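User: Design a sequence. Structure:
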C-alpha cells in the first residue's frame, strides 16, 4: 500500500542525500572551498530537521496536522500505517547502518564521476573533482526540483569556470555525467512504469 511504500521512497531519498553530504564533508579535509562548505552545512541542517520532524513526538504531531491540511496528503494521513512505517524505518540502529552503508556506496560511486572528468581530459584530482560534482548535486536537491534540473548544471558549470575550464567544456561534461547517471536511470524508470501501469 502507498502508506507503506511512501516512507521507503522518502527513506531512500533521505539517505541518498546523507551519502552526498558526508562525502562532501570528507573532501573538505583535503580541498576547502567555501561554496561546498556552505551548501553541505545547509544540506545537513535540512536533513537533521527532517529527521527531527519524522522521529520527534512533538514535531511529528505538528507534521500530521500540517499534512492533513493538504488535500494530496490528507488521504494518507488518516492511516497511521504511514507514521508507524516511518518510525520503524528511522530507528537508531537502522540510521547508523544506513549512514555507514550509503557513505561507502557513494564513495564507490564517486569513482565513476572522477573517471567521467578524466574522459574529458580534465584532471582536477580525485577529491576536487567529486567535491565539485556532489556540491552541484546537493545544490540542485535543495530546490526540491526533480533531479535538480537547471540548478545542478548551473552551479557545476560555474564551479568549473572558476577553475579556468572553458564553459563549453564544462557544459559538455555535466550533460555527459547527468545523461549517464540520473537521466538514464530516470528514463528506464519512466518506461518501466509506463508499460507496467498503462
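Assistant: Done.
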Amino acid at each position: 500500500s502507498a502508506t507503506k511504500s511512501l516512507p521507503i521512497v522518502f527513506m531512500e531519498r533521505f539517505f541518498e542525500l546523507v551519502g552526498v553530504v558526508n562525502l562532501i564533508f570528507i573532501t573538505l579535509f583535503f580541498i576547502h572551498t567555501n561554496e561546498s562548505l556552505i551548501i553541505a552545512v545547509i544540506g545537513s541542517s535540512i536533513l537533521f530537521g527532517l529527521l527531527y520532524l519524522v522521529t520527534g513526538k512533538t514535531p511529528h504531531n505538528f507534521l500530521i496536522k500540517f499534512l492533513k491540511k493538504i488535500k494530496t496528503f490528507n488521504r494518507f494521513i488518516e492511516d497511521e500505517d504511514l507514521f508507524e512505517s516511518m518510525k520503524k524505518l528511522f530507528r537508531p540502529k537502522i540510521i547508523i547502518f544506513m549512514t555507514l552503508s550509503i557513505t561507502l556506496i557513494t564513495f564507490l560511486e564517486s569513482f565513476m564521476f572522477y573517471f567521467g572528468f578524466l574522459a574529458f581530459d580534465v584532471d582536477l584530482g580525485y577529491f576536487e573533482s567529486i567535491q565539485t560534482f556532489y556540491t552541484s548535486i546537493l545544490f540542485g536537491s535543495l530546490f526540491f526540483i526533480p533531479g535538480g534540473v537547471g540548478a545542478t548544471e548551473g552551479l557545476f558549470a560555474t564551479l568549473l569556470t572558476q577553475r579556468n575550464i572553458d564553459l563549453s567544456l564544462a557544459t559538455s561534461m555535466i550533460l555527459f555525467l547527468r545523461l549517464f547517471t540520473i537521466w538514464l536511470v530516470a528514463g528506464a524508470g519512466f518506461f518501466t512504469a509506463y508499460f507496467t501501469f498503462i
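The chain has a mean pLDDT of 81. Residues 167-197 form the longest helix (31 residues).
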